[in-house]
Amino acid sequence: YGLSSEQAIREMAGDDYLQFDSVDPIWDNFDSYRWSDDPVFPDAPKAAAWSTEKIRQYFLAKIKPSERFYAQYHKFQYENARAQRFDPTTALIHCRFDDAYPLAYSGAPVNFNGRPKPAYFAIQNANQAVLPILYFDFEGAKDLRVVNDYWFRSWKGAKLTYRLRTRDGRVVADLTRTFDLPADATVPVIERKDTGDVWHVPGGFFADAAVYDADGKVLSENHYDFTDQEVQTFLTSVYPLAPVKPANAVVLTAEEATGVKN
């Protein structure tokens, strides 16, 4: 779920769009949703804790983080599914792409008035027919692969460029590869050992990838933007099955665990 912009909310509900304090049941309803749907609202107050004005200021401060999270959520779910093309998955079903009634906080990338959230453009970019994808796992980027969803278009001598940077601009990896891109295919181009240790770039990272045809025409571009907190949130949200060791994890054997004393 994600918040709409304040402008969009005013269009739907008018200027006085927050008329309740935290005693109101509507806040308790929101309070239950935010625990399960995203990491933006862990500091939301319990019932009867805040006044109407304090809730308003809290709400306004959360719009940008919520928009960012919701856009990233969709970017990575679409890219991850597409990267696994037929191995084992091939598609996603998006339930409720636009809201059927006015909602400030919802699971739709387009609101009731037809105004797109940033997530809409993330979805648009993630569904380009040709797309370079950093295929993430718990140890980093397994590879940088290129998906081609065209049935009858292929490219010989295509070029893939990849640049990984720290958030202050230092270049960690800068690579170019030439490859053939068949029709209706997924091609791993840059291996894990060359993608850079993305989860351990200090402070988070930016990454840019682009695909060109043999004549230098851009076929597709993709961009990645992770803060250090977003990396940590991802790595601690879900863990892989043993024996895979997630980044930053401390793994104890059964013998070691039984020997640990409080």
Characteristics of this structure?
alpha+beta, 7 helices, 3-stranded antiparallel β-sheet, 262 residues
Give a structural overview.
With 262 residues, the protein is an alpha+beta fold. The protein contains 7 helices and 9 strands, in the order E-H-H-H-E-H-E-E-E-E-E-H-E-E-H-H. It has helices at residues 6-13, 25-37, 52-83, 118-126, 192-195, 228-237, 254-258; strands spanning 2-3, 105-106, 130-137, 140-148, 155-166, 171-181, 185-191, 204-212, 218-227. Strands 6-5-8-9 form a 4-stranded antiparallel beta sheet. Strands 3-4-7 form a 3-stranded antiparallel beta sheet. The longest helix is centred in the N-terminal third of the chain and has 32 residues, at 52-83. The radius of gyration is 22 Å and the shape is globular. It starts with a strand and ends with a helix.
Number of strands: 9
The largest pleated sheet is described as: 4 strands, antiparallel
The ordered H/E elements are EHHHEHEEEEEHEEHH
Strand share of the residues? 25-35%
Short account of what is shown:
31% of the residues lie in helices and 27% in strands. It is α+β, with helices and mostly antiparallel strands. A four-stranded antiparallel β-sheet has the order 6-5-8-9. A three-stranded antiparallel β-sheet has the order 3-4-7.
